[in-house]
Design goal:
Layout (H helix, E strand, L loop, with lengths): L4 H39 L3 H12 L80 H5 L23 E10 L5 E13 L2 E12 L2 E15 L2 E11 L5 E6 L4 E4 L5 E3 L5 E2 L3 H11 L8 E6 L4 E16 L2 E10 L9 E7 L5 E8 L5 E11 L5
Parallel strand pairs: 9-10
Antiparallel strand pairs: 1-2, 1-15, 2-3, 3-4, 4-5, 5-6, 6-7, 7-8, 10-11, 11-12, 12-13, 13-14, 14-15
Length: 382
Amino acid sequence: MSRATVPNLRRRQLALGALTVLLHVLVFDWFGGQLGRSSGRHGAVPEPVAATLLAQADTPPPVPPAPAPPQPELAPPPPLPEIAPEPLPPPPPDAGAAPALAADASAAAPAVLSAEASGQGDAAAAPSGVESRQAPLPAEVQAQPAAETAAAAPAPRRYKVDLPPPADITLDVVRVDADGTKWNGDALLSWSVSPAGYRVRVEAGIRVVFAHVNLLTLTSEGRLGDEGFVPTLMTEKRRGRATTASHFSRDLGLMTFSASQARYGIAPYAQDKATLPLQLAAIARADPKQLSGKLDFQVAEDRDAAIYSFEVAGQEEIETRLGRIATWHLVRPPKPGAYHSRLELWLAPAYGWYPVQIRNVEANGAMTTQTVSKIDNKNPGS
């Protein structure tokens, strides 16, 4: 190899080495640039989030609404003046009846000797000396005659009377509730005479296992006169209820009640629930022919009064523990607007016309029947 060839070869090797170095520098520089851009991309915050944050930062905070101006306090209304209650007007007259009567007599106690089988419990004590709770009468009523407290009514039917002798009448009680539940018990109708007048007592109850539960006690006091029984006070005590009193103020001619503000003019032959069966017996004893047509009586109840209208349904025999007894059957049918029960009485001529059977059929179908089992006549010759 010549000396001229060796320099050329070295120059070519140097040029190739320089080119190689340059290529490596370029490659490293490009790769480094690529790495820098990749790192910057992964480390940057995503544009949507940045936009969201900027939007939230640029949005001004909401302005709270201005508070409502305070309302002036309203002055309390002045108190209403007290209005004195107006006195009760006299009730309208009942067509064909002697007194003026309200048309809403209670149907809860329509029977003369009804036994309310209202459940089990201890016997209710009968009132002995019940305190009178008669409602005071207005001054203008006390100053007026009785005729001015009730509207005029037609002349009542007149009756002859022959009082039955005092007696104790024991009756068997059978009650069937509207749902068919049956109860058995007993009742007592007792009346006596003293120089002060008469006293009638009615008790009715049921038998529960070996106990007797008294459900109803009625007492009536008054005098005897040409009209028969002339009541002055009736008290009624039902199991679980307070004792009520019905007053016959004969001097004022008014009937009032402790359990209500009702008041009525007293009609001739007015009775209460305790004396009514005996009053019918007195009319029949005087003359059975008087048991014809309608027999209307004003009857005091526990808080009101009503006209009881009886009719003779016929003559029939009934079965009793005293045997078969011939009777006159009297019926008081329901009266719309006044009472909703049916009341039936059987009077026995052979037993002094005493009531030997009493039945009450209530509006819901419940029925209470009381049938004589014993009569202790205190004056057998009468």
